[in-house]
Specification:
alpha+beta; Multidrug efflux transporter AcrB transmembrane fold; Gyrase A, domain 2; 8-stranded mixed beta sheet; 15 helices; about 50% helix
Length: about 600
């Protein structure tokens, strides 16, 4: 035997051993696995919801928050378009207003956000300073610029109310639920091959999530990632504004900073809740808002600290402008952080925002929490970072950074989620059904192996060995990536067995034809593999194309089926055309058989 054969044999043996070691922790129940193997190969095959059960969650989408956010954005557009209506600015200057010009427009035409009693209707109120400007507003103007709004009252008066159309509110509610469904599915898919079931019920505003086969210890992380809104905003801090009238005398346990009356701070376990309760009592101007962020602990006042930030409400750059996010590390402290890249639109907006706000602070707000508020030293373009502070252990910071990357890449939820129900559920298939299904699959494989050995004799035994090796490698890969085994996955495995047998049948039949032509066993093997390879590869390629399409556009069980199918195609090609060739070469070169039995 030449050196090349020994090298190929080493690859076959090495891959077989590696596949077994990766699979071993998953079969520890039947074959005890050493701790060193478990530590090296941490993942296991997880039984799916239909086989073992899993986690069932129900969330209510807070649709009113989505509608309020949409109303606030429209109100900002109304304020700017009113400047054009009254002749204060030109149409082309709508997106480039500076603070003095905006204040001039507000003095003549003020736009406020108003909630109707009961909170059912989101309204916008326009208050004109003089009748001449008020007479310029008409229903036609509203219809041309803001199709989501209708004039509720006051046309021709100094005060005009605009309401969101009922049909638009209905569409918004459905959109919020559907977008939440898609975002949750993307987040769970990012965590691994979990084959989740995500069911949206727009009429009820509910989303039902079933996560199969996950370890109970990972449920808390899954719930955290699912429910995190991940609404990212970049807002300018108003350190120059007269906010002393806003921050009234605080209750006990909350302190106004001695150096600046623009923020309050609190310390202790419930500091954040106390600050929120205090903020709720403040009369904040319509164009401002108050957010909360961490600050250094004060042992004398009770431990961890939280403080307020007085922000301009308008967020010109948001998470919608993100292109990518990744875990990074601070070059000075080495602390984990999140590095992000803006898309073209976001980079342009960020450059404009920071260019006209030099010397001011820009708050990076994630889910109403200020993560950091650095001073703008120069224009910022497409790249930036989110520092997570130094308030957690390094490992906890790293995990938080990773989870934040997951939710940012999957996209922000359009509205917060409120937990409605949570339960661990049993298998959707009965134990008897699972047992009978496993027996049927096992019996099918045994019958195929017996037929191959009987019909193709020695070549059939080699094919049987390759089918078993293929199953071992496939299950080893599944275990290595922590895949979930459900009925669609079982179907993909069964299909893989069929493809593996088919590849060996094509090769064996080719070898048989060469032997019938009177060629030697060695020559027949070489010619058989050479001529059968294109047929085997083409058949696997066409199946792989279908699998790639399913993986790209499918979700949940469909994506899980496609993943198993693609892995199976790879292992089938490896065992059918490479590993089996090593065994045939040993027969015709090493053992020098004079008569090769191929049926």
């Amino acid at each position: 035997m030449d050196r090349g054969w020994y090298f190929r044999l080493a690859i076959v043996v090495g891959s077989s051993v590696l596949g077994f070691l990766a699979l071993w922790p998953s079969v520890d129940r039947w074959l005890p696995c050493p701790d060193i193997v478990k530590e090296t190969f941490e993942n296991q095959i997880n039984p799916g919801l239909d086989i073992k059960g899993g986690l069932r969650l129900m969330y209510e989408v807070e649709v009113d928050e989505y509608i309020r956010d949409r109303r606030d954005r429209i109100a900002e557009q109304v304020q700017r378009q009113c400047g054009v209506l009254i002749g204060a600015i030109a149409e082309e200057d709508v997106d480039d207003l500076d603070k003095p010009k905006l204040a001039e427009i507000q003095a003549r035409c003020k736009v406020e956000r108003v909630d109707k009693e009961g909170g059912a209707i989101r309204a916008i109120r326009i208050t004109f300073a003089n009748q001449e400007d008020a007479d310029k507003l008409s229903k036609t103007w509203v219809r041309d610029y803001f199709r989501d709004l209708r004039v509720a009252s006051g046309v021709g008066d100094l005060v005009v109310d605009l309401h969101m159309r009922e049909e638009q509110l209905t569409d918004m509610r459905e959109t919020a639920v559907r977008q939440s469904e898609r975002t949750i599915t993307n987040r769970i898919d990012t965590l691994g091959v979990l084959e989740p079931t995500v069911i949206a019920r727009p009429n009820d505003g509910d989303i039902i999530i079933e996560v199969p086969g996950a370890q109970e210890a990972s449920f808390d992380r899954i719930k955290s990632i699912i429910s995190r809104t991940a609404q990212l905003k970049f807002q300018i801090v108003d350190d120059d504004g007269d906010s002393r009238s806003v921050f009234t005398t605080p209750p006990e346990g909350i302190y106004l900073n001695a150096d600046s009356q623009t923020f309050a701070e609190a310390f202790g376990e419930d500091a954040r809740d106390r600050l929120r309760a205090y903020i709720a009592t403040l009369a904040v101007p319509d164009d401002h808002e108050i957010a909360i962020g961490r600050q250094d602990a004060d042992p004398e006042r009770g431990g961890e600290g939280w403080r307020t930030y007085y922000l301009y409400r308008l967020a010109e750059v948001t998470g919608e402008d993100l292109d990518d996010a990744a875990v990074g590390f601070d070059p000075q402290s080495g602390s984990p952080e999140v590095d992000f890249t803006m898309n073209t639109r976001g980079a342009s907006r960020m450059s404009d925002l920071t260019g006209r706000s030099l010397g001011k602070r820009m708050a990076i707000v994630l889910d109403d929490r200020v993560e950091s508020a650095p001073v703008i030293q120069g224009q910022i373009g497409a790249r930036g970072r989110i520092t997570l502070g130094a308030y957690l252990d390094r490992n906890e910071l790293l995990q938080e950074a990773r989870d934040l990357v997951v939710v940012l890449q999957a996209g922000a939820l359009p509205a917060p989620l409120r937990p409605a129900n949570e339960q661990l559920i049993g298998p959707t298939l009965g134990q008897d059904s699972v047992r009978k299904g496993a027996m049927a699959a096992f019996a099918g494989v045994i019958l195929v192996l017996i037929f191959m050995a009987f019909y193709y004799q020695m070549a059939g035994l080699i094919a049987d060995a390759m089918v078993l090796l293929n199953l071992q490698l496939l299950l080893g890969v599944m275990s290595g990536i922590g895949a979930t085994l459900t009925l669609p996955g079982v179907a993909a495995i069964a299909l893989t067995v069929g493809m593996a047998v088919d590849a060996n049948v094509l090769i064996t039949e080719r070898i048989r034809e060469e032997l019938r032509l009177g060629k030697s066993p060695r020559s027949a093997v070489e010619q058989g593999y050479a001529r059968a390879y294109s047929s085997v590869f083409d058949s696997q390629l066409t199946t792989a194309i279908a699998g790639i399409v399913l993986w790209q556009f499918g979700t949940g069980p469909i994506k899980g089926f496609a993943t198993m199918l693609l892995i199976g195609i790879g292992t089938s090609l490896f065992t059918g055309t490479f590993c089996s060739k090593v065994l045939f070469d040993w027969l015709v070169r090493g053992a020098r058989v004079q008569r090769l039995r191929v049926g």
